């Protein structure tokens, strides 16, 4: 059975959305030092889409455009444009220039153009675009970090979330076509994440990155899940942590649903018993996982929260599981549930 490809784009896109300041600080410290991170970061996704030089081709990009305030004591803004490129592209430098020029033309504000190169070609190192015609000269020098150049030992020693993501990226490349080695590294990284003591929300994201980048076939993935449960008990001495909300909710819900559906189907002789049992089992599995998440983050949920979660539909449970990344207190969960009433 072949291994599914690593989802590099999905992992880095999520990192930019949830960890934009840490991303800039880790990979581009000079730019990060110019920015007042106490002020809001305004993402300009729609504007970036309109400026895409490849808009008509339908190509998918992992990029981000943000408006930030400078840390110079004045009310002064700049735009930060970031591109993450996992494969070589002969037109990459030109595209960086087109974005830079179009952003400046539209906004008339300085633009910091930054790129993270995640490919495996040591010789491919785009960092500028330009040309010269007689007395005319044009040159854009943009920030470029090659993941292959980042010292692995430094990444291993770091607890920075972006260092962990960079390690997973390198692991995915190093274990391509080696399922057993990928399985070994996936389990080792999971144990490392637990030992580094990350916040629950950060741990959720790291484990999602783990699932996106170190992907395995279903058989090996089931083996990994079973071992992960054991690692959790060894490292944390507690009930299992929710590793991948959508995946586990579906798996546990399907298992319980099948059992209930089969029992009802046998008892009543009705095929619809299985379908109903599967649906109810899925929702039950999801609600249990959400309650586990809540307990890990905020302590035991009060009865009204338990009842509120139990009353949610499958789609609502998925929405709550995602919203938990943004909540800081249990009362925010209560408010979210009240809005659903």
From TrEMBL:
Coiled-coil stretches noted in the UniProt entry, renumbered to this chain: none
Protein name: DUF4351 domain-containing protein
Lineage: Bacteria, Bacillati, Chloroflexota, Chloroflexia, Chloroflexales
Region described as Disordered: spans on this chain: 252-276
Family annotation (InterPro entries): DUF4351
UniProt domain DUF4351: residue ranges: 280-337
């Amino acid at each position: 059975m072949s291994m599914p490809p690593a989802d590099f784009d999905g992992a880095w896109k999520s990192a930019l959305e949830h960890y934009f300041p840490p991303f800039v600080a880790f990979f581009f410290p000079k730019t990060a030092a110019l920015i007042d991170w106490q002020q809001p970061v305004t993402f300009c996704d729609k504007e970036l889409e309109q400026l895409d030089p490849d808009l008509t081709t339908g190509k998918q990009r992992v990029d981000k455009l943000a408006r930030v305030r400078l840390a110079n004591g004045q009310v002064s803004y700049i735009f930060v444009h970031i591109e993450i490129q996992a494969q070589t592209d002969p037109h990459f430098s030109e595209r960086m220039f087109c974005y830079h020029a179009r952003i400046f033309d539209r906004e008339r504000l300085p633009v910091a153009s930054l790129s993270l190169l995640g490919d495996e070609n040591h010789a491919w190192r785009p960092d500028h675009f330009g040309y010269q015609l007689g007395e005319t000269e044009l040159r854009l020098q943009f920030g470029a970090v090659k993941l292959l150049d980042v010292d692995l030992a430094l990444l291993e020693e770091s607890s920075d979330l972006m260092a962990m993501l960079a390690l997973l990226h390198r692991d995915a490349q190093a274990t391509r076509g080696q399922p057993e080695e990928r399985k070994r590294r996936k389990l080792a990284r999971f144990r490392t994440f637990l030992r580094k003591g990350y916040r629950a929300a950060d741990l959720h994201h790291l484990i999602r990155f783990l699932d996106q980048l170190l992907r395995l076939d279903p058989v090996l993935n089931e083996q990994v899940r079973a071992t992960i449960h054991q690692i959790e008990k060894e490292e944390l001495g507690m009930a299992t942590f929710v590793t991948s909300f959508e995946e586990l909710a579906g798996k546990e819900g399907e298992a319980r649903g099948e059992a209930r559906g089969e029992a009802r189907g046998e008892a009543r002789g009705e095929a619809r018993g299985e379908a109903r049992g599967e649906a109810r089992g899925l929702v039950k599995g999801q609600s249990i996982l959400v309650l586990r998440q809540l307990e890990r983050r905020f302590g035991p949920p009060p009865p009204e929260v338990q009842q509120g979660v139990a009353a949610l539909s499958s789609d609502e449970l998925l929405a709550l599981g995602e919203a938990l990344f943004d909540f800081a207190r249990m009362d925010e969960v209560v408010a979210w549930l009240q809005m659903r009433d």
